[in-house]
Backbone:
């Protein structure tokens, strides 16, 4: 990320100015930032495909922003929703057949699988980055390819540790640990008290991938090096596998089949004391019509994934970005739409309405009051800041996407944790599987 | 074709009977086949060929693939997960089909009695088969949950188990669970169709056999079973095919987990081709299903062809 | 196998020799197994119903009796019917299933008649080919098909499904009707031919009226298969308002990793009702036409 173009320098300057202004006055617009806008084509109308809401507020505010946009520009926007797991195939098919929605909000490295099918968004993203304190590193990696932007980072559904404070205290931990060793101790202590943790180890697109990648990276393991050579079978990976094996010993039974909803349900019924999840558990508890569950919400706390032997944050989150397909007839209308919804005036209320579900890719948006409105929201603020990218530390593309889609890392951890394979065999096997995808 | 057909009788008096029939049969046949042929050639044969072609390319979603001959298949040959999926698919198909057949036949024999509310019972027996699979799979997902399973709850209350059963978490349990869900869905089809076959068997055959002193087992073995064989062949062909190409049930229940223990070829093909973007490899897995399907179909085809010997008094 | 034997004895009872077996015996060999079958086959539906009317709090409560509902609620059903597009999805499904069924039956009747009665050159092979066509799983076809559906400009319209569903409906219906036509005495047609009737007249005036049970069962079968179809509908339809029930339920009633369990189950139940009602009326037709399909 060290291509010092004029744009980047400008951006950094503007970023500093923006944060400065925010910090001092709570104002978001740096005085000198030139507002940019794109002129929609005559008679333009847009079709937008997004993943269906995680919370009602997200959808309400999103549609409200869309209505505002239509009112301002006269461009009609049709919004379609698709279950979040089904957006990837939809986007891939649209790219493949060369028609479909003009804009799709996809996941992870989607744009890198069909970069030549996408409209260059460099002007838009440089402008947004410049205005709002710059993009976080991982967001930039996800959005850029060969020096130009092919996706516009929109946010991430963060994955943090979700725990029951009273049970942690009962186990003797009034302070939540911030390193991997400490985490293991809490887990053991809570499990010994009859309150086991449980992390999804099934082929769960969201929860399974995110926390296992954290486990791998926090111990220094990674799938590929900078040259896309597979280096998965390493002592670091085996250390990570042994660590998760120890974690698994404290788990409630059944986790190797867990898909995304399982841990939510288990947590809300008081069966598990700790899991890795989005803010959805807390949100569901808070808004439950059952008083007993609402009461539980007061006991639910969050923490960022702890730092492992590598010494820095190394998380993976469900990252979403917008793609404009080059079959669209109205590229400028698309860009204007994206610019509009990303601006603070629209993004801030939308993000607030999503109640912490969505972490922002632009640094200045740390200032959104939603993050400090409740101490439980705060960890989710830093998700993109603490994030690495899928396929770290190689380049993004079909191989990184395919390796994740084939659950290589999740399967490796599940095999080693459950004892189906020794950590060494699991790592060697996953290494072979990864090589298949990185062969070309 | 409406205009064509009435000409037939007019010419029939000038031509010999055979020439008339043959000429018009072919032309008429063509017209009659046309609607089905157009749809099937366009939407089935052509994409099927395209799929086989794709399996020999390195196509990815979004990119045009190069023709690479059998490289995908060579890769799959060395892929442990692929072979696991083949094993799972065969196990799933064979176990589920056999049990579906046994239980289905039993249920058909029961239903072939004078029962009160006969039509009503048949209608509700068919329910599992007509409900969309994804929807019943969601119900099974609850039934097999490691924490909420009502089955575990009941067994625990009865004092049979002390720990909740980890239905989908253990590879062997998971296989058994998905097979059970598939059987649940498949029994009605087998039972109702076999029942149809049973009703064609004349009661007088049984009476005659009884008068000749045949035991119930002999009557089942030598009357019921041979008379039923053609329909058994048909039912089992379809049952095997439905099971072999199953996708929705696994997709909802386990996504192929745990540890890929329930991945079927269809779900693995989907996982590699669509979320994994490796269109060519996905197509190769799908293409690899074809030989199995052909084997199944030939098996039943010859089963159907040979039914004449069943009436030729073969004993065993 | 002992069950088969005893049941077979019971088959025999139908022949008027019921006095040979006592009532207790019949209870053990017929009614008890039947009760178990019905219990197992229906239990998931009971379970769906229970979940559909259970308040959210009770759903995840551990101690509560999962078989029962303490405070039944219609909230989930109300949410489903009035706060989602469920009625619209039902309508889509109905439309797609009905049209594709009729389209398929039309093609299948002509094809089956031609193969079975016209016996044109190569009809045996075509019959075989049609049977084989049914074996092609949709999971192989949906990627190439999605490209084609796109090319014809029908993507994201009900037409995309109406045109592709016949690929699995026609082969089965044709095959089933072939069997049924075979069971209709050929002499009737021969007489009509000699009297100068055209083939089409024979088909519409003689064969079809006799084949009504076969048509009904092929229709039911086709309707159900369309109703249950998942992969094509998932791939070819993007817009929420064009979705069919099975796809809409698993894609639209899921918010992130929180499932609207009650509404899911209510949707599954309500989505099954139309086909269930259809079946309860026509189950005897179905049974008798399967009989026809395999009779010599």
Residues:
């Amino acid at each position: 990320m060290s291509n010092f173009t004029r744009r980047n320098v400008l951006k950094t300057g503007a970023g500093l100015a923006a944060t400065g202004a925010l910090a001092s006055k709570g104002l978001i617009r740096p005085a000198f930032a030139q507002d940019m806008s794109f002129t929609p084509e005559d008679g333009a109308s847009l079709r937008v495909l997004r993943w269906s809401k995680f919370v009602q507020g997200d959808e309400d505010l999103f549609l409200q922003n869309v209505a505002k946009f239509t009112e301002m520009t006269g461009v009609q926007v049709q919004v379609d929703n698709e279950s979040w797991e089904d957006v990837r195939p939809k986007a891939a098919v649209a790219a493949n057949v060369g028609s479909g929605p003009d804009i799709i909000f996809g996941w992870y490295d989607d744009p890198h699988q069909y970069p030549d099918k996408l409209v260059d968004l460099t002007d838009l993203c440089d402008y947004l980055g410049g205005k709002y304190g710059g993009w976080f590193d991982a967001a930039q990696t996800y959005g850029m390819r060969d020096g130009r932007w092919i996706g516009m980072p929109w946010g991430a559904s963060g994955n943090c540790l979700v725990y029951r404070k009273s049970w942690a205290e009962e186990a003797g931990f009034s302070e939540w640990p911030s390193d991997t060793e400490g985490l293991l101790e809490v887990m053991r202590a809570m499990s010994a008290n009859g309150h086991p943790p449980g992390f999804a180890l099934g082929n769960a697109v969201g929860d399974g991938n995110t926390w296992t990648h954290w486990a791998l990276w926090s111990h220094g393991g990674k799938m590929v090096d900078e040259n896309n050579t597979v280096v998965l079978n390493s002592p670091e990976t085996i250390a990570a596998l042994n660590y998760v094996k120890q974690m698994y010993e404290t788990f409630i039974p059944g986790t190797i089949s867990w898909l995304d909803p399982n841990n939510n349900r288990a947590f809300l019924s008081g069966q598990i004391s700790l899991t890795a999840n989005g803010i959805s558990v807390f949100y569901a508890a808070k808004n439950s019509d059952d008083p007993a569950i609402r009461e539980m919400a007061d006991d639910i706390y969050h923490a960022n994934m702890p730092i492992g032997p590598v010494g820095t944050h190394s998380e993976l989150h469900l990252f979403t970005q917008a793609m404009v397909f080059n079959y669209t007839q109205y590229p400028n209308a698309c860009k204007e739409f994206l610019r509009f919804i990303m601006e603070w005036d629209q993004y801030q209320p939308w993000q607030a309405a999503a109640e912490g579900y969505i972490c922002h890719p632009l640094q200045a948006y740390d200032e959104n009051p939603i993050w400090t409105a409740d101490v439980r929201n705060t960890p989710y603020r830093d998700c993109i800041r603490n994030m690495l990218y899928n396929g770290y530390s190689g380049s993004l593309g079909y191989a990184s996407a395919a390796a994740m889609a084939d659950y290589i890392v999740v399967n490796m951890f599940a095999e080693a944790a459950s004892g189906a394979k020794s950590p060494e065999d699991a790592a060697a096997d996953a290494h072979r599987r990864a090589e298949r995808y990185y062969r070309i | 074709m409406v205009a064509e057909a009435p000409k037939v009788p007019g010419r029939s008096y000038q031509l010999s009977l055979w020439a008339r029939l043959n000429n018009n049969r072919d032309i008429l046949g063509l017209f009659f086949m046309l609607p089905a042929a157009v749809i099937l050639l366009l939407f089935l044969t052509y994409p099927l060929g395209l799929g086989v072609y794709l399996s020999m390319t390195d196509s990815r979603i979004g990119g045009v693939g190069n023709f690479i001959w059998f490289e995908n298949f060579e890769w799959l040959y060395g892929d442990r997960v692929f072979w696991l999926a083949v094993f799972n698919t065969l196990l799933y198909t064979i176990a589920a089909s056999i049990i579906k057949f046994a239980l289905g036949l039993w249920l058909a024999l029961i239903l072939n009695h004078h029962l009160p509310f006969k039509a009503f019972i048949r209608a509700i027996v068919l329910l599992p088969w007509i409900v969309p699979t994804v929807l019943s799979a969601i119900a099974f997902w609850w039934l097999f949950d490691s924490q909420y399973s009502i089955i575990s709850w009941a067994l625990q209350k009865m004092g049979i188990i002390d720990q909740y059963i980890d239905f989908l978490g253990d590879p062997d349990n998971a296989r058994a669970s998905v097979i059970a869900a598939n059987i649940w869905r498949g029994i009605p089809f087998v039972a109702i169709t076999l029942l149809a076959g049973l009703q064609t068997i004349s009661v007088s055959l049984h009476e005659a056999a009884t008068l000749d002193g045949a035991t119930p087992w002999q009557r089942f073995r030598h009357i019921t079973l041979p008379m039923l064989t053609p329909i058994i062949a048909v039912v089992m062909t379809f049952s095997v095919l439905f099971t072999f190409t199953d996708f929705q049930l696994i997709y909802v229940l386990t996504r192929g987990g745990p540890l890929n223990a329930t991945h079927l070829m269809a779900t693995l093909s989907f996982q590699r081709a669509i979320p994994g973007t490796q269109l060519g490899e996905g197509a190769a897995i799908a293409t690899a299903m074809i030989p199995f399907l052909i084997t199944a179909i030939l098996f039943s085809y010859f089963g159907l062809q040979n039914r004449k010997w069943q009436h030729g008094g073969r004993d065993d | 196998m002992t069950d088969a034997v005893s049941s077979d004895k019971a088959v025999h009872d139908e022949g008027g020799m019921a006095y040979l077996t006592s009532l207790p015996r019949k209870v053990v060999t017929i009614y008890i197994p039947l009760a178990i079958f019905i219990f197992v086959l229906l239990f998931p539906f009971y379970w769906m119903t229970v979940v559909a009317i259970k308040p959210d709090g009770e759903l995840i409560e551990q101690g509560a009796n999962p078989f029962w509902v303490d405070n039944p609620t219609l909230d989930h059903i109300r949410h489903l019917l009035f706060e989602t597009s469920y009625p619209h999805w039902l309508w889509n499904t109905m439309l797609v299933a009905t049209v594709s069924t009729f389209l398929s039956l039309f093609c299948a009747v002509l094809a089956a008649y031609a193969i079975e009665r016209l016996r044109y050159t190569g009809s045996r092979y075509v019959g075989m080919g049609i049977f084989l066509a049914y074996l092609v799983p949709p999971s192989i076809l949906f990627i190439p098909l999605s490209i084609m559906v796109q090319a014809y400009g029908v993507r994201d319209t009900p037409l995309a499904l109406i045109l592709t569903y016949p690929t699995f409906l026609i082969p089965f219906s044709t095959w089933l009707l072939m069997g049924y036509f075979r069971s209709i005495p050929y002499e009737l047609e021969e007489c009509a031919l000699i009297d100068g009737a055209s083939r089409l007249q024979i088909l519409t005036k003689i064969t079809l009226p006799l084949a009504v049970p076969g048509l009904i069962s092929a229709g039911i079968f086709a309707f159900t298969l369309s109703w249950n179809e998942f992969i094509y509908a998932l791939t070819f339809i993007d817009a929420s308002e064009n979705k069919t029930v099975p796809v809409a339920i698993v894609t639209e009633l899921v918010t992130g990793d929180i499932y609207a369990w009650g509404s899911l189950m209510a949707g599954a139940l309500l989505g099954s009702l139309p086909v269930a009602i259809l079946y309860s009326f026509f189950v005897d037709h179905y049974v008798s036409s399967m009989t026809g399909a395999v009779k010599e």
